[in-house]
Amino acid sequence: MLILCFLLLIAFQVNASACPSGSVEWNSNCYIFQKNATEFAAAEIACKNLSGNLVSVHDAFTNALLAGEAPNYFQLSNESDFWIGGTLLMHAGNWSWIDNSPFDFNDWNKGEPQNFSSNGCVSVSISSGAWSSQDCFKSKPYVCNVTPKPTNPPFVNCSFGWSYFEPSSSCYGVGNVTHEKIPWEDAENRCQAQGAHLVSIHSYEEYNFVKSYDVYAWAGPIWTGLRSDDGGNTWKYSDNTPFDYPFWKSGTNTTQDGCVVSSIYWLAVNPCNVECLFLCKKSAV
Question: CATH second-level architecture of 29-146?
């Protein structure tokens, strides 16, 4: 029942609001990872121009989400950290958020913060996610938080228990079949029994949507429809859509037979007889 409620929440969030393209949506917030390095104040102005602010962090989950996504967006950055909205400059030397929300959570690195104005802004390590106090005039990439704009979602017919993802015009779920860890072939058969196939992934946005199942709802990697039977020369989805988003785990041996799972950061190859959870995908009616 808890999982079903979570999936219905996902469906509501995707349909009822719209985040800017390329952002990460979670818990009624749009997190926009800006790669261009700039000073703290200029970063806040840029966020305000998007009708938001530099991100404030109020719980460990949001902190982990930002830390987990940052390497994907900032992997080409020359900087080792990025700005969030914490600063000493607003309230008489006390740490506060630039959006004036309560400063009720922190993840300071050992020896931090350095409580003097020359290091009066908060940055987050791209590699570790730990916070440090930094010179506000240094240029760094940054993350904005923007409230998603309400939308009037199109009418779609996804069966009960399935979630709609507008960019792909598809429904995602497992329907009324038993959901358990099973080999790839069995998982594909159960999807086909629902008029679907194992999920195919064609963009970073769709990958994030699929990840909301395997990370936040089911806590484990899930079968996708991708497999190779010719030693990795070709990788094909069971729904016959193109393999156009090769987001492989670093170091993955793709020159082998196998079936592909989606996990928290990447796609990885498993033997097809390994038992994993699964996610089905079908076109919306």
Answer: Roll (3.10)
